[in-house]
Amino acid sequence: MKSAVETLNPTRVRLTVEVPFEELKDSLDAAYKKINQQVTVKGFRKGKIPARVIDQRFGRGAVLEEAVNDALPKFYTEAVNEAEVNPLGQPEVDITELKDGEVLAFTAEVDIRPTIEIPDYSGIEVTVDAVEVTDEDVEKSVQQLRDRFASTNPVERAAAEGDVVTVDLEAKVDGEVLPDGVASGVQYTIGSGELLDGIDEAVTGLEAGGEATFTSELKGGSAEGKEAEVTVKVTQVAARELPELDDDFAQMASEFDTLEELRADSRKRLENMKQYDQATQAQERVLDELLKLAEVPIPEKLLEDEVNTRKHNLEHHQLGQMGLTIEKYLELQGKTVEEFENETREQAVKGIKTQFILDELVSREKLNVNQEELTEHLMRRAASSGMSPDQFAKAVVEGGQVPMLVGEVSRGKALAVVVEAAKVVDTNGEPVELDDEDETAETVEASAEESEDKTEA
């Protein structure tokens, strides 16, 4: 077999392949065998039809077509390996010559991973938010915990903001009660904004037995998006009572004996959260600076596929689970179709560039992923997916996604190399130390989400 490679652009090549006909022998034999099992010829047992009879009855062309289709993947793979290119996606194959008994020639155009020069990233500098926890932050955290332990007691007075009212609802559109527009015994905290627009004003000031009517756009159900006339009847008003902020509360709501110990623990937890957010912010900003430094040509077909995949996943998975259409989503986001298209394309470009650059760094730095690192990452991914580690691991193996996880960890390690070399300071001018590679892997995963399977060589 002879082959040659022609570079069409930095992300696409054309392979020209010429195969001596004798190299098709195995595929020709397989083609005759396959046709033998599929056809019946009078006077011959099934599977025992001579090749000359098949040629006479069904045509030599049918056999050649079957043989060539069988052999092409092998010859294409050999040509790719000989040319030392990293293909992306499926090739566009064109058979240019097929002479029975003489030669098979074809061309294959395919997108490839571009050659990337890793820039000098040692000079990257980024500024991140300082880790600062104020007394107000601590009090807010303690108050949120206090709210969780609030009790409600019925009161005989008009409802006010913060009260929990039990209501019956009836929604009409064009004077007709909707089939799914009646609900009884609904509990609602006034001011929470968790039900219909306008309900807060309608129930405020009503006592048990009071009734009001208001107009609101329905957020779900059979008449979603339509204006409805809603009648609300208050059947009970209950006041929320918060526990006293004292040592007894600390003992009830936590493992601590005193309120001061609870406050100290809240401060520590907030500091840890802000340190995690700071680390994530640093990794994202370092990655953004690295992407600015590197020239990365993007295969147009790969980009088109990535954009379509992102849009499909959003529309049919994420929005589908929420019961939203793409039109309603854009309306809620306040975006035009053009803005959405541009934003999706920018995200796809960033995801592909991130993987190309970090994969090149993995190769250059010879970064490997050991079993312990892979297991730790798998545990984190399982936790975020809501599955047990065993369930998640089984799904990963059955879905053939182990290389994807390995890629996430290795790219995280590559980004950690860049972050370590960068200068990271907070808004107070203090240097920030970062060393959690698995958190870095999560940053990479978020940036390059949904690109893994397309950019694997």
N- and C-termini, Cα separation: 23 Å
Q: What oligomeric state is this?
A: single chain
Share of β-strand residues: 15-25%
Average pLDDT, rounded to a whole number, is 90
Total helical segments: 15
Low-confidence stretches: 450-457
C-alpha Rg (nearest Å): 33 Å
Helix/strand/pairing class, anyone? alpha+beta
How would you portray this structure in words?
The protein is an alpha+beta fold and 457 residues long. The protein has 15 helices and 11 strands. Helix 2 crosses helix 3 (60-83) and helix 6 crosses helix 7 (259-293). It is extended and about 100 Å long. InterPro entries: PPIase_dom_sf, PPIase_FKBP_dom, Trig_fac, Trigger_fac_C, Trigger_fac_C_sf, Trigger_fac_ribosome-bd_bac, Trigger_fac_ribosome-bd_sf, Trigger_fact/SurA_dom_sf. Residues 162-215 form the PPIase FKBP-type domain. Belongs to the FKBP-type PPIase family. Tig subfamily. Its main location: cytoplasm.
